[in-house]
Design goal:
Layout (H helix, E strand, L loop, with lengths): L11 H30 L6 H10 L1 H27 L3 H28 L1 H7 L7 H11 L3 H16 L3 H25 L3 H24 L17 H35 L2 H37 L3 H28 L1 H6 L5 H14 L6 H13 L3 H22 L8 H38 L1
Helix pairs in contact: 1-8, 1-9, 1-11, 2-6, 2-11, 3-4, 3-7, 3-10, 3-11, 4-7, 5-6, 6-9, 7-8, 7-9, 8-9, 10-11, 10-16, 11-12, 11-14, 11-15, 12-15, 12-17, 14-17, 15-16, 15-17, 16-17
Length: 455
């Protein structure tokens, strides 16, 4: 095993950065799938605002798809990294193969269920008679790509965990570049509108899935995916799901927040405010990328060194990622505070949406730097295989804080739609402090127990 793939030796920051840069670029490209759709749809002549609202109503379903991707992907990859640290080849194979099988099975099941219950679900998520046709038109085509997006995203972590960060970036790069090229062709040249955006996305996701599977089954992979030998193993699946449930809840809770927000905004402000929230969530996804990329890059390094019992290197990873994440998040907050309208114009030029969206953006991103502490804390919990703590703080942030506040605050003091946007910064402060403090206490206990055992 080369030094580049052995995270128990060499510079911890170098290992993290060697993964973080390509992983962040890869994630940026991954988000570009949907961002490019939103940007082009948001500038469609005549129907841009309503089409953007319709697209925003599909977010909870897209989030559910990603939640199940995380259930198996973010569960299998850290366990795979720990097995690598222990040099346990048999365990590595089991984690990779069972993750692959469960992604295949769940993707088909989700796709079929979404087709069966599409109309009632979209209305439950806040659709109106005016916005539903746009949502349904996009979703009917987008769902075809469910197996592709789940396999490419869920299995890509096994490439990064083997130290091939650049290859992991290219997994998504090919598909996203294709999406950027195909979107204007299908949307404008073929005059297919929102349906054209969905077709371009599905074709792009197919390219990403093909790339990741070709690499994992090819000669360059340190641990190959043995598709023909893959067999379901109950104990392994349970182990993967037990750890991956944190990532599942993080995504599923995002869906719950989106549902609560769409319904409340629709009731208090109408479809235009659902469009505003669509833009705010789009901006949030972009600015979170480098922070999440750094945290995700630290996970395999932390997991590997846990398996190798190199606890000082785990602390070094925390000391490196925390200040960088916090400073970056503070700078993003400053830029958003100073330039809300130019940022929103990237996604939509509707004067009414910009007028209502700028003050909402100021509120929504207040104290954004606290997200850094939540992000670092969660990445350490997942890297250490601490599923209960990871699940606890995923639930705290969204289900315990944001959803109730989203539903209650609009009724208090005449806040209305403002109450929906206030819920986000409150959750940032509460979850950031609680998650990071608990993470530090957990790491201290881990190293103290090791010192006692050594004595």
């Amino acid at each position: 095993m080369s030094d580049n793939n052995d995270f128990s030796h060499g510079s911890v920051p170098r290992h993290i950065l060697s993964l973080a840069v390509p992983m962040t670029l890869g994630q940026l490209v991954q988000i570009a799938y949907n961002l490019v759709d939103r940007i082009y749809i948001g500038h469609m002549e005549g129907t841009s605002s309503m089409a953007l609202t319709g697209l925003g109503l599909t977010f909870p379903i897209v989030t559910i798809i990603m939640a199940f991707t995380n259930l198996f992907g973010t569960g299998g990859v850290p366990l795979f990294s720990i097995a690598r640290g222990k040099r346990n080849a048999e365990a590595e194979n089991r984690y990779m193969e069972n993750t692959f099988l469960m992604l295949c099975i769940s993707s088909v099941a989700i796709m079929l269920l979404c087709y069966l219950f599409m109309k009632p679900v979209l209305y439950l998520f806040g659709a109106s008679d005016e916005s539903y046709p746009y949502s349904a038109e996009y979703l009917k085509i987008y769902l075809i790509g469910t197996p592709f997006v789940m396999l490419s995203t869920g299995m890509n972590g096994f490439i990064n965990a083997q130290g091939f960060g650049k290859t992991g970036m290219f997994t998504i790069l090919f598909g996203a570049v294709a999406n950027i090229i195909l979107d204007p062709i299908f949307i404008f040249a073929f005059d297919m509108g929102i349906a054209g955006a969905a077709i371009a996305t599905v074709l792009s996701q197919l390219l990403s899935a093909v790339w990741v599977l070709l690499f994992l089954t090819g000669r360059r992979a340190l641990r190959k995916l043995r598709i023909r030998k893959a067999r379901l193993h109950g104990a392994t699946i349970w182990e993967i799901m037990r750890l991956g449930v944190a990532g599942f809840i993080m995504q599923a809770s995002n869906g719950a927040v989106q549902i609560a927000a769409n319904n409340t905004l629709g009731a208090y402000g109408g479809d235009i405010y659902i469009g505003v929230m669509t833009v705010l969530n789009s901006v949030r996804e972009v600015v979170l990328l480098p922070m999440q990329g750094l945290s995700n890059a630290a996970q395999p390094v932390i997991g590997y060194n846990l398996g190798a019992q190199k606890y000082d290197r785990i602390k070094a990873a925390i000391r490196f990622t925390t200040p960088i994440s916090a400073v970056y998040a503070a700078l993003c907050w400053l830029l958003i505070f100073l330039f809300p309208e130019p940022i929103m114009q990237l996604f939509n030029a509707d004067p009414e949406l910009l007028e209502k969206g700028a003050p909402a953006m100021h509120i929504f991103f207040f104290g954004f730097f606290m997200m850094a502490f939540h992000s670092v804390g969660q990445c350490v919990f997942v890297g250490l295989g601490k599923s209960r703590q990871a699940v606890c703080f995923s639930l705290l942030r969204k289900i315990i804080v944001v959803v109730p506040l989203t539903l209650l605050l609009p009724h208090i003091g005449g806040l209305g739609v403002t109450g929906v946007f206030v819920a986000e910064p409150i959750s940032n402060f509460v979850s950031g402090v609680a998650c990071f403090a608990t993470m530090l206490w957990t790491v201290r206990r881990l190293t103290t127990a090791d010192n006692r055992a050594g004595a």
